[in-house]
Amino acid sequence: MIPTVAPTRADQTERTTAAAANARSAGKAAIAKFSRHRLLTSPGAVTGIVWLAALVIASLTAPLWLPFKTEDQDFTAVLSGPTAAHWLGTDELGRDILSRIFAAAAGTLGTSLLTVIVGVALGTVLAMLSAGAGERTEGAISRGTEIMMSLPGTVIILAVIGAVGTNIPVVMAILGILMSAGIYRVILGQAKSLQSQLYVDAAKVDGSSPLGISVRHVLPGLANTIVVQAALIFAVGMLIQAGLAFIGFGPPIPQPSWGGMIQGASQHVYDAPWMMVPTGAVLALTVLSANAIGNALGKAPNASAPHLPSAAARRQRAKAVAAIASAAPSDRSAKAHEAKGTLSVRNLSVGVDSAGPGKGVPLVTDVSFDVQPGTVLGLVGESGCGKTMTALSLLGLLPSGVSVTGGQILWNGKNLAATTDKDMEAVRGREIALISQEPMRALDPMFTVGYQLNATLRRLRGMGRAEARNEARNLLEKVGIVDAERILKTYPHQISGGMAQRVAIALALSGRPRLLVADEPTTALDVTVQAEILSLLRALVKDTGMSVVMVTHDLGVVADICDQVAVMYAGQVVENGRTEKILDNPRHPYTLALLAADPHANHAHAMPERLASISGQVPQPKDWPSGCRFAARCQFAGSACTDPVPLLPSGTGEGLVRCVKADQLAVEGMDWLATDVPASQVLGIAPKQATIIGKDLA
Ligand SMILES: Nc1ncnc2c1ncn2[C@@H]1O[C@H](COP(=O)(O)OP(=O)(O)OP(=O)(O)O)[C@@H](O)[C@H]1O
Questions:
Q1: Does the Cβ of 553 fall within 6 Å of ligand 1?
Q2: Interface predicted TM-score (ipTM) of this complex, two decimals
Q3: Per the count of CB atoms within 10 A, which of 1, 35, 155, 181 is most buried?
Q4: 47-74+87-298: which CATH architecture?
């Protein structure tokens, strides 16, 4: 039995103090996070919030501060403009317009909110029911909402008014019910697309109930849409309410309403035109405020289009580009790389812009490599080593909030790292193209393959319709599609993954690029299709003379297709050189370990009895040590590895290696151990123990 020890008073005090400190720091973090919320960073939304809040407060406290009651009449100042006594003038009965506007505000806003609550709640619940239930329930609900949408809303509202009188809350609630049909359709579309996400399938496999899935996985994804719909309905509700009051179906007289006041003003448009201004302006400002808030809330950065940078990100990138351009060395090194189709990356660094360009966490540091025309360079390493960031920086497509913080990307002598977004548009597609891991993402599900190819060819090569159609067919044939004519007419979802990757390659070739950046183009494909795509890329390089930067974590792919390889670890190149040299004679322990862990990488060597593993994982950028970044996982690390390590000649051709022990390891001919469990256990003769270890590793 484990003995229990009663906590002492000192322990308890310490824990209470720690808990209070945690709560304080969590509170501060929450306040800091909220202050960065898009609602508070959009000037329009902030103005809208201030206006609505002021209106509500002023309206609710109106009896305390307004100089006149709503029904007070001043016959000495009928239809007057602004005066010291009546700041916004008076109406035809000498009633103070300012007092009436504020007295009517709370009612107008409150009943519009009622429309929002009823409409959005009903629309959302119906949409969630439809999305989660079977086809029959969805069919029944959808038919019901279609009927609602086909009914003449105005007539129904007038009929309701005929039945219950001008009871504005009831009328606005009915309006909410009528509007819920439209909201249902918008939300259902999005809910169904969320239902088809992989994480929803995973939740189903985990045994979550349909209700649990809807609430936990689907509803949060709908938040943006719901908020935008709510703001829209709020604004529409206010306008409809004003419209009803305008035609005489507002709150009973003498209760003021904005619509009623506008109607009164419309009768004096010639003799007292000012009368229309205050109420009209307040109504317009309130509607605009609701829309501005909805806009800001709905504009979740990266939510709908993570690849499109926000305005702030664009400004940030422009600043980073300017900084890089001013820090770039003279054009002399650029001139040396002017040959057509030559890429030369020099000391490239990429980082997060959290504290301004160049001041955030670095993600890639000091990366250099060259790619000659007609050759393939492999960027290889585990997940999180910075391969994708390096590759995307070549196209100026780094995600929002990440930018190049130093170094040069020399393409035909031009430094792309210091090029504006606008200039990059002329390079992307035409000179450098991209194919990605998921071909389906490159293809728009809404359009046929033919349409997408034609549109790209017309845009990039300025072709006419007929010429583009012919070229699209040629391109598909070039990437090995035999029935090109049929594929041109199909939609992306009608073709297989391998076929989609061929189409994506054809799209990438549309602009006749000289460099293709291929970000793990075969990872999502099965092995036979992988081989086909690799041999297609090889053939394209040979036929067209274009070069390829191939991002991969698979040394087998490197062995198959790459002329040069740059092994990346924790944001750095740790070894580079000619592929066969590196595969036959790796100098960095990380390369050694990757090779020992990959049975297909080196065809020359016999399949080992057991595969190696690399203990631990790639450190997060914020945890990179100042010395060798691989030291913590390295079987050969020693005290010399705590100092920063430069890239040094590896002694194999023109290769470079970032390891202080590279020469010693080469001389001693050391191998990466097959496992990180002590060698005595791995090689242990005792059959029982060996079986257990074998099982564990499996
Ligand atoms: N948008 C981002 N903002 C901040 N950090 C990021 C962003 N995207 C990636 N990172 C970080 O940058 C580092 C490098 O990521 P990168 O995607 O380049 O790695 P990778 O080697 O290509 O991995 P994978 O093979 O999984 O794509 C990782 O630590 C990752 O967490």
A1: yes
A2: 0.91
A3: 181
A4: Orthogonal Bundle (1.10)
